Amino acid sequence: MERQLGQQPTTSCLARANSPAPLVVAMGDGAIDIDKLKKHVYDVIGAIHSVHDELGAGVNEYCYQEALEWELADRGIPFNREMSFHPLYKGHPLKAEYRVDFLCKGDIVIECKAVDVLNATMRAQLFNYMRLLKAACGIIVNFAPKFAEIERYFFDAARGVILTVTGEIIK
């Protein structure tokens, strides 16, 4: 099943799968284990919740980022904050520079927001970072609401597509 970039996820990103069988999305020559990737980001999601629980809603985005830096460090989760990188074009680095809010465990991109509503442009930014870095996991978090909005996505490098937590391809 596919959905458009601007559409909200059809299920809560924090909901657990009802099925006891692992969610594995088949590829031509292998599979991407979404349940394994969900477990891979679990401690990072916990750190995000901890930051929101402590600071609450309505704080500046940079305050949330600084607090998340402290929380990740306290939990021993490896990360780089505001990591810069140059995208490649036909194997050559471009002069253009991108900067991700966080790269955790070498393959989890986190984009922090403090806005009224997450939108398609913000999600596209995360998806581009995931593709360019070939990062298996991406998290976009909106700290502004009363309850943090957290969306998780996964990059299937073999097919070059972004997937939701339910295995839907993002168009």
CATH topology: Trna Endonuclease, Chain: A, domain 1
Q: Which regions have little confidence, pLDDT < 50, spanning 5+ residues?
A: 1-30
What's the end-to-end separation, in Å? 10 Å
DSSP, total strands: 12
**What global shape is seen?**
globular
- State the secondary-structure class: alpha+beta
The average pLDDT score comes to 85
- Going by CATH, the architecture would be 3-Layer(aba) Sandwich
Main-sheet strand order equals: 4-7-8-9-10-11
Q: How many structural domains can be distinguished in the coordinates?
A: 1
List the helices and strands and how they pair.
Blueprint: E1 2-3, E2 24-26, E3 31-33, H1 34-55, H2 61-74, E4 79-85, E5 88-89, E6 92-93, E7 98-104, E8 108-113, H3 120-133, E9 137-142, E10 149-156, E11 161-163, E12 169-170
Parallel strand pairs: 1-12, 8-9
Antiparallel strand pairs: 2-3, 4-7, 5-6, 7-8, 9-10, 10-11
Report what the structure shows.
The chain is α+β, with helices and mostly antiparallel strands and 171 residues long. The protein is 29% helix and 30% strand. It has a single domain (29-170), classed as Trna Endonuclease, Chain: A, domain 1 (3-Layer(aba) Sandwich). It has three helices and twelve strands. The protein has a six-stranded mixed beta sheet with strand order 4-7-8-9-10-11. Helix 3 (120-133) links the parallel strand 8 and strand 9 (137-142). Helix 1 (34-55) crosses helix 2. The radius of gyration is 16 Å and the shape is globular. The N and C termini lie close together (10 Å). The model is unreliable at 1-30 (pLDDT under 50).
